[in-house]
Write a structure and sequence with these properties.
The chain is mainly alpha-helical and 153 residues long. It has seven helices and no strands. α3 packs antiparallel against α4.
């Protein structure tokens, strides 16, 4: 079942159960997917839908950071709850250990041994590995892992 259909089904279920917060988050997700579909002028495949959801999660993380700085904890908590709900529609996120192992493997495959100057290439290689494995990763975490490995940390 395409992701957008699954979300529509869950919207109906949330309406029936009168779950206001879940309903508003699902509607927001559906709108984002529909807008992307309109921009593309064709139905989205699951990979494209997942990219839209990843973008929504990234926006929420940025908002949490801003709300926390501004002392608006209740707003930060609301955003965190939205992230949890959106993540249920995505493949499992890779753990820090899996990311570190993937980065090490990507570096080991490269010859000659990469240095800090080759960080872009290492990132590209590592992200390609994660995408091929169907793993969802946060680019920022991968970037930190690459820096650690290349600096010998």
């Amino acid at each position: 079942m395409p992701l957008i259909d699954q979300i529509q089904k869950d919207i109906v279920a949330a309406m029936k159960a009168r779950e206001e917060h879940r309903l508003s988050t699902l509607r927001l997700v559906k709108t984002a997917l529909k807008n992307r579909e309109i921009d593309k002028m064709a139905p989205l495949d699951d990979k494209e839908s997942q990219q839209v959801l990843s973008t929504l999660i990234k926006q929420r993380k940025d908002s949490i950071e801003q709300f926390t700085k501004g002392g608006r904890q209740e707003m930060a908590d609301k955003e965190a709850a939205e992230i949890k709900l959106i993540e249920t529609y995505l493949p499992k996120s890779a753990s820090e250990e899996e990311i570190a192992a993937g980065v090490k493997a990507a570096i080991a495959e490269m010859t000659p041994s990469p240095t800090m100057k080759d960080m872009g290439n290492v990132m590209k290689q590592a992200m390609a590995r994660f995408a091929a494995a169907g793993m969802r990763v946060d680019g920022k975490v991968v970037s930190e892992a690459v820096k650690r490995e290349l600096s010998g940390g």
